[in-house]
Structure formats: structure tokens, C-alpha cells
Amino acid sequence: MDEGFQVSAASFTRKYHKGRLPSCEVAILGEIEHGNFLMRAIKMIKALPKLRSQVKEADIIYAFGVDMGLLCIISAIGLLKHVAVEIGDIRSAQVQKNLKGRLVRILDKYIVSNCKLMIATSIKFVEEYYQKNLKVKTKTIILENKLERQQSDRQQKTKTGFLEHNIVIIGYFGLLRCSKSIRVLTRLASNYPNNIKLFVAGYSLVDDAKFAKLISLKNVEYFGEYKSPGNLFEIYSKVDLVWSVYPFPNVGELNWKWARTNRFYESCYFRKPMIALEGSADGDIVREHKIGFTVEDVSEDEIVRCVWENSHENFELYQQNIFNLPEEVYLYTQEGKQLKEALIHMANN
């Protein structure tokens, strides 16, 4: 969303999926390791002088995540600068009921309460966690991970196997980090080699051997990593249904109930019915609008049977319903203007 700001960025790098790179100048603060929180904290502290020099030059400070929010708050001490923090996830450590969880929540509350503005990608993060649980009163706006309108690519007609050969092509896209999803899809493709095809695209974080087994099957095609939004039309045009199942949660995790996946917004945009996890944020709206079907977190065999039985039924109904879905569900409309106004107000007060 181009709203007229002059933007510069500061970030850490890590050996991970690159994602979409910003179109502005980026100052590298250092390299951190994924998941190694102690080393991550040490390197972030060492980066404070460099970050402070960036903060001095800015009128508005926008931090992605509470860890960067804390660094920006520290870097802005004595500078009379306000910080906005974007919340994209609520991790399991934040909702644990043990001592570690309580300490994390104390720090979390301190950080967000000392920010002038909170931008949350889900209203549930605000209502269920920050307001209900932490009693945070920071001004908030909601900025979901919707898509920007792209030319007319979603209007282009694409042919898929189901329409021509009674073969259902299921797509699994994004950060491929759910081991149970990999096992379920491997069984599904193995059990129905003549009726199910899988088209997989993205960056795998699961066990190499298990992922290799999946993509080695004759009825599975692996695209590799892809760029968003550049490759989205290409990959979504190849499938009938999208595996939009949020990674099957561990006990105590709540993010799956509150956050919609990127695959949800993308599937709506490209008018592809989806398979979602029952009780998840995606699953609730999929069920409400009948734009696909849901699976429960049960045994792998039961999930495979559910997908097989439902993937051949009501397909035309799901597709018609997703064509009729209001665009504001998955496309940005007034959010850019609202964010701009909130940031300008923050900077001037």
C-alpha cells in the first residue's frame, strides 16, 4: 500500500525463507539463528547502537514483533520518539500457564503498553489476549494479511484436473512446517494415485526424509520456493482445492484459533475452495460461507478418509460461494488510509 511515506528499514538476517524483500533501503543489524533465543537476544543487544542511529533519523518507528518493539523502545530513550508495534502471531510461550509464560506476559504487557500504537493482524489477538488477558489499553488498528488488488489476474480462467478428468488437484503452499500435514498428504496421495494429485510449493521446515518421500510420489509435483505475489497466480491456477489447514496445534496453543493463514486470503483471491482445520480461524469462515470443508484433528487415517469423501462432493457449490464472497474479506480496501492516518496522528501527538 503506497501511502506517500519515505521508508527506510533496519533488520536482522537469518538462514530462512527469504519472503518478499522490501523495496526500500535496508540496514542490516546482524544475523540471528532461527529458534536460538539466547544467542538471538545477545545479538539484538549488540545491535542497539546501530538501531539507535536509525531511530534518530525517523519520525515514525514501526516495529515488527514484540522483540523488535522492545529494541526500538530502548533505542528511542531520550529521543521523544513514539513506537508502533505490529503483532503477527501469539506464540505458545505467551499463553503458557507456567512461570515462563507469566514472565513472558509481564514483558509482553510492558512492551505493548509502552508503544503508542499496536497494529494486529487479527482482532482476536487484541480481544482475547492483549485486552482480556493482559489488560492492555494501547490504541489498536487491525491490519489482516490480506492481498492488494493485482490487475485482473484472478479473473483469468484456468483449467484444472477435476473439471476435465475427475481428478482432484490439491495445493499445499507457503512455509511447509506441519509434519502431520505432510504425513496426511503423503497417505492421501499414496492411497488414491489415480484420483488425487498434489501440487506443493514453498519452503520446507519438516524432516527432510518425510518431505522427500512426499514429493517423490508420481502424483505429486513440487514447484520449489516461490515469490509472493509474483508466482501466486501461477501456483494457484494449477489446483482445484487448497490445503489451508493450520499446523495441527500442540496442547495449549491458541494462535490457530485466532489467526487466519496467508493461504486463506490467497485462496479467496484466486477463487479456490479450501480444506481447513475445524475450529480454526480459517475453519470458522470456511464453514460459515461454505467455501470448502473442514477436517478435525483426529488420526491421519480418519483425516485422509474425510478429505477423500468430501473433495468430490459439493465442489461447484464451494466454487460458486467463493466467487460470491465479499472482496473486503480478503482484499485491502481502506486499510492503507487508516494506517496512514493512525501513524501520522501518533507522530504528531
Automatic annotation (TrEMBL):
Gene3D superfamilies: Glycogen Phosphorylase B (3.40.50.2000)
Transferase found in the keyword field: yes
Keyword set, alphabetical order: Transferase
Molecular function in Gene Ontology: transferase activity
SUPFAM superfamilies: UDP-Glycosyltransferase/glycogen phosphorylase
Name listed for the protein in its UniProt record: Glycosyltransferase family 4 protein
Source organism of the structure: Flagellimonas hymeniacidonis
Taxonomic path: Bacteria, Pseudomonadati, Bacteroidota, Flavobacteriia, Flavobacteriales
